[in-house]
Amino acid sequence: MSCIPFNKTLIASSVATVALGLGSGAALAQSTEPDASAELMEEVTVKGFRSSLMLGQDLKRNAVGSQESIVAEDIADFPDLNLAESLQRIPGVTINRDNGEGRQIALRGLGADFTRTQLNGMEALATNASILDSRGSVSRTRSFDFNIFASELFNRIDVYKSSEAKLDEGGIAGTVNLRTPKPFDYDGFKGALSGKLSYAENSEEYNPRIAALVSNTWGDFGATFSVAHSQSDSVEFGHRNWQWEGFSTSSFGPDISEADQARLSDGSLAYPVANTISSVSNSQDRTGITLALQWNVSDDLLLSTDIIYGKLESDAREYNAATRGYRQINDFEVRGSSIVYAEFLDADIRNESKFNQSETEFSQFIFEADASLSDSLTAKFTAGYSKSEFDAPVHDKVYLISTGHTFSFDYRDSPEGNNTYDFDIADPSAYQLHRADTREDFISNEFTTLKADFSYEINDSSSLDFGLQYKNYESDGYERRQTVRNLEDLGISYVSGPFSTATTRNFTVADVQASFPNILAAGLNARNTDRLFTRDLTPADNIEGSAYQVEEETAALYAQYNIEVENIRANFGVRYATTDVTSSGDLLVREAGQPARFEPVSIDSSYSEILPSLNVTVDLSEELLFRFSANRNLSRPSLGDLRASANIGFAGGTIARGNPELKPFIADSFEASFEYYFGEINYVSLGVFTKDMASFVVTESSNVPYTQTGLPPELLPPGDEGRIFVITKPVNGNGATLTGVELAGQYEFGAGFGVIANVTYAESEAEHFINGEKITADLLGLSQISYNLTAYYEAENWGARISQAYRDGYLESVAGRVNDFQGVEDTTFVDASVFYNISENLKLSLEGINLTNEKLYRYQDIADHRATTVYESGSSFLLGLNYTF
Length: 885
What we know:
CATH class: Mainly Beta
CATH architecture: Beta Barrel
Radius of gyration: 29 Å
Shape: globular
Largest sheet: 22 strands, antiparallel, barrel
Number of domains: 1
Distance between the termini: 42 Å
CATH superfamily: TonB-dependent receptor, beta-barrel domain
Strand content: over 45%
């Protein structure tokens, strides 16, 4: 077979002396890697960030489809401390942040729910929560939270932007595969120890971060063990509003003219609710463990076991000084249709203190058998199980109140707002106990996977991959709450909280843990119940519609033909997937004169899809290649939309429900790129992509007789058989389109100095339903422009780099009320690092994250950009040592 020769450096041979110290290992072990079909080329003897770039470039170049890869710089030494922040360096990847670090990713403008995440080739889902309601608080989604794991546990990340038949279906945006080290990656005994001391600017706290890896092979057997542990104390502070609503009042102060009273009475002007000074602190312990075992039973059989364990524990506190009870407006200013300044008389100041304890625990077990069945046929059998549990047993709040004050807010000069009070908000004697809440959350996600993959070599230039898969996914969870209010006249004492953290202004809050015993001792009934207010919540305290289970059973078959002739590499195939869905939950039923009750319900549905794919790469010369991909893929509906739970209000004749019969999102994707490789490390690429998506989920309301709702008839009160109910539920809508351009490259000027840059531009059009009206706008989560820029210098003994990541503003959710959307303003984050090699095995490093202290701004309404949250997380720094042996 004659091919255009070019000097591509392949991971399979070069890693031994580059980033990972990989050894020859077992031939069968190498043959199972995604890139193993490429030819072995010359070795490269470099180490560090530059080697990581070279290896990632090799994987990108040698792939048939569209793929990006990030490779560790050294043993237990990933380029970034956070996996999401490493991924954002890839063209088309953007991230959202929590506690000052990356949490979830979006790929090419599609939200985190549309990207499927695998650990060692098996789908997994790990979730935690944000203490901030504005960031979703506790939400059950298909979005993977990358901040659960330390980056030191992984040695490679692959991002598959295009699909092929042998890849699992489920991610119309793409697939991210996180890979942990294996013993046959290394040549004999290898190990690494790293220790870092972190400092967070806002919390002014120092914390440790440690990691270790040890790996060895004993002939045909090998074992690799790694562990990582870190502690962190983060503080974010700023200003937030719950939302903007239509302002309507009939109470006016003496300075409001008669002409202005009409404008302030009809609800056409929007005003900010709460105007809150806010501060959030979070102490986290993060632990991760990996274990990999490999046994070359014979030349024809390799057995492997991979185990991953992760645990993230959080103790979070949130403090808010909010304003409620705007009884009289005395002055105001309007811009657009928004009240940007107002003064109120006789207002209430309500200060909230929140204490939250949560834990996410993740475990995964994978067993693989790689077998050579004949000279032409190989097989890989996989059995795996993963489970993630998020448990927040403590989520307590205590509110204080101070009444009868003159208060004003002012957004004329800054979206951060300026509040003015007529008293000292830090004076404990000005407050009384007002309210207390308890809450408990639980979310469980489980995957069981069985796979059989075969590869048949037809001849020297072609092969046939085929296989089958069974996957079972189960999600379970609930949210429970109790509250007591109007405590100010009951004489219950509170303990003032030790609030001395970073904030824009000091204010009095209650110490939640010290005040709660006094509240519980009062023996009060929880609001709207006949049960005592307690921290020990039961299923009777479930929030309506929050307790539900979703189970998906998927069977898939695929066949994929691979060919490499002359200067062309290609694969084309088809995947067939069928999914059975069972959604179970509790219906909350309210009848006049009767206590509310829950009734169980379970609904089954199914769907099947045929998913074709084509990937072609043409080497036009030694340096230039052309790549084209076309495929159909699916993403399954969100868990909340699939819930069988519904809220039934017989008095009002309303039913709000999920829709277990939703069909998946379907996308036909096309992309093409030219990639030019020159020199040892340099390349430039230009690509275009488009996605035509069908069956987007929208909310629909309709008037339906109860007998046609599909709900159990025995729930209906006697005599209501023919009654009409207003039903709201998610349905499959018309879809959306997405088109974009990606430009990327890296260039080394010589003497160790180089630059890396990429920019993505994307446009989209999607239908949204806001207050019953259909509106065409961008896809939620789409930033039209995002770019990354890195400059680095790397010499024999030292090196440095600085990186900038920009993300354009984007729409986050449908807002409703007097607003159309909720959005996020553009952000620019700057990170830097420097290292010095004290010896061949010992490296000293210093890293700085968010050096410019970038703030996160959220708003409501496209036209007026009404500020909802402004938070700053501060910069953080890490000083570390890494020792390899």
